[in-house]
Amino acid sequence: MTSSEEQCRGVRHVAIIMDGNGRWAQQRNRPRAFGHNKGVDAVREAVRTAGDLGVRYLTLFGFSTENWRRPSDEVDALFELMKRFVDADLEKLHREGVNIRIAGRREGLSDDLLEIIGRAESRTAENDRCFLTIAFNYGGRDEIVRAARRLARDAASGRVDPGTVDETLFAGYLDTAGMPDPDLVIRTSGEHRTSNFLIWQAAYAELVFMDVLWPDFSADHFKSALDQYASRQRRFGGVNAA
Ligand code: IPE
Ligand code: IPE
Ligand code: MG
User: Fold this and answer.
1) Is the CB of 53 under 6 A from ligand 1?
2) Which one of the listed residues 19, 142, 175, 183 is annotated catalytic?
3) Exposed, middle or buried, 96 (CB in 10 Å: 0-12/13-18/19+)?
């Protein structure tokens, strides 16, 4: 193994459910948006750490299709933060060779956010040092339904023969088309659920749940999750080699 493969424990793709911003703020008697703001620093550190450790694919859950149930001022704050983060960090990430993709439903996003997303994706489309996907307005079921709708259209128009539909073809219709499945899904904040995140792609991912609230998630937490991953045995339904 090369040293970067050793550092990342052979993990190609880490996906993170960044949870606990609200509780982090509440513990400090501050509004929830204060926690989301602080969470952006942890995003920056996680992207940096992934790069340092040689994890090539990093996918971060930023806003779920269910998060619309939150008060509108909190939803507005999350959208503002997303715009500001991409706008502020785009050129730096581009210089570092990061390929940026936004997964999730585009319908319902404002024109200015769509413009920033489009700019980030086209500016970094040729980069291949690492791949940062931000799942925003993302839900696993919504993604599968959107994929099924497009596939059904292609079948109805004769572009796809229904008899050829298999897992590989279907995966090509998902927002994550072309990406390897996550090896490791980390959730912070102590909740033990996946909340509709990458439900197709994470079918065989190792899950690591950590008690830390997202704004406190550091490089050491990231490394500790990789250590836990390294101690797991992945079998994919088979049996261990003797
Ligand atoms: C951030 O944490 C995750 C987002 C939905 C942006 P939360 O806002 O869910 O924080 P908690 O879970 O209420 O503490
Ligand atoms: C999942 O966290 C969504 C994101 C991290 C963006 P939530 O805080 O929305 O999940 P639940 O409601 O606790 O399941
Ligand atoms: Mg939460």
Assistant:
1) no
2) 19
3) middle
pLDDT band, very low/low/confident/very high, at 8 (cuts 50, 70, 90) = confident
Catalytic (active site) residue 240 = no
Under 8 Å between Cβ of 8 and 54:
yes
- The Cβ of residue 223 has, within 10 Å, a number of other Cβ atoms equal to 16
CATH code of domain 3-139+183-229: 3.40.1180.10
| For residue 168, pLDDT beyond 70 | yes
Domain range list for the chain: 3-139+183-229
Q: Which of 21, 29, 41, 67 is catalytic?
A: 67
Helix (H) or strand (E) segment spanning residue 151: helix 140-156
pLDDT digits (tens, 9 = 90+) for 54-92: 999 999 999 999 999 999 999 999 999 999 999 999 999
Contact of 140 with 198, CB cutoff 8 Å = yes
Q: Looking at the CA of 217, which ligand is closest?
A: 1
pTM for the complete prediction? 0.97
Mind listing the pLDDT tens digit for each residue in 182-235?
Answer: 999 999 999 999 999 999 999 999 999 999 999 999 999 999 999 999 999 999
Query: Residue 13 has what DSSP assignment?
Result: E
The phi-psi region of residue 189 (left if phi > 0; otherwise alpha if psi is between -120 and 50; otherwise beta) is left
Which residue has its alpha carbon closest to ligand 2 atom 3?
64
Q: Is 215 in the pocket of ligand 1 (CB under 6 A)?
A: no
